[in-house]
Amino acid sequence: MLKIENLTVKSGDSVILNDISLFIKENERLIIFGPNGSGKSTLIKTIIGISDYKVVKGKIFFYDKEITSLPISERAKMGIGIMFQHPPKIYGIKILQLAKCLSEDEKEIFQLAEKLKVDEFLRRDLNVNLSGGEIKRVELFQVLLQKPKLLLLDEPESGVDIENISIMGNVLNEYIKEKKCSALIITHTGYILDYVKGERGCVMIDGKITCQNKPKKVFDMIKLYGYAKCEECEWKQKKN
Ligand code: ADP
Ligand code: MG
């Protein structure tokens, strides 16, 4: 459902993503690991179409339609939903107001808000005066109301306490199973993998995909040997 071919992305003069190719099938979850600054968030933001980044080579397809140059709103309408690593604060827009733009079903809004424990924030300005973990729950709330077919999750568990990771993980897993939704999930801690089954995992280093295997296997190797070992991975040797 998502196919990326030889994608090279720049911000200003710097190349951030360098000739990336990857795919995600229908009802499949791809997990991306990688050190800070390797380009993971840039990849996700390029898929949704954030304008800070310039695609200088390559193409992105969603359900066989090329979306490389489509505006972000079109990509969202087609069914791509994003949960940002650092979502912005927006003064003057209440979380509930936004939720009502995303879903017409008030019952669904309040049920999901309760499940994600964001019901007490609904009348606050978007992400204003919320803790890091609360912001993440509000992000998940918004993205699930959009009912995406492809979820782009940038470190969904970062800054969230263990109890709330379990709440988010269970809600996410339920959504994925019910909608047979595909996902690209970036994680450092791997906690989310206790709740969401990832079929494939890969590692991004210096704007390139260096390794691919079962997510748990990749994660265990990173914990044992660090990211350097990923650069020696058999997958890369086969590819080259
Ligand atoms: P990751 O999510 O893997 O930690 P990012 O994709 O956020 O990495 O960033 C990759 C690299 O690109 C970093 O060196 C970062 O400083 C740089 N970068 C990201 N966004 C921008 C931008 N808008 N302008 C300039 N440099 C950027
Ligand atoms: Mg990031």
Q: Can you walk me through this structure?
A:
The structure is a single chain. The chain has a single domain (2-94, 147-239), classed as Rossmann fold (3-Layer(aba) Sandwich). It is built from eight helices and twelve strands. It has helices at residues 40-48, 72-78, 95-102, 106-115, 132-145, 162-179, 215-225, 234-239, and strands at residues 2-11, 14-24, 29-33, 54-62, 65-66, 80-83, 90-94, 125-126, 150-154, 182-186, 200-205, 208-213. It has a six-stranded mixed β-sheet, sandwiched between helices. Helix 3 (95-102) runs parallel beside helix 5 and helix 5 (132-145) runs parallel beside helix 6 (162-179). Residues 40-41, 85, 154 line the site of magnesium ion (MG).
Count of discrete alpha- or pi-helical segments spanning 4 or more residues:
8
Number of individual domains:
1
Uncertain segments are none
Sequence of strands across the biggest β-sheet: 6-9-10-3-11-12
- Secondary structural class: alpha/beta
CATH superfamily grouping: P-loop containing nucleotide triphosphate hydrolases
DSSP summary, beta strand count: 12
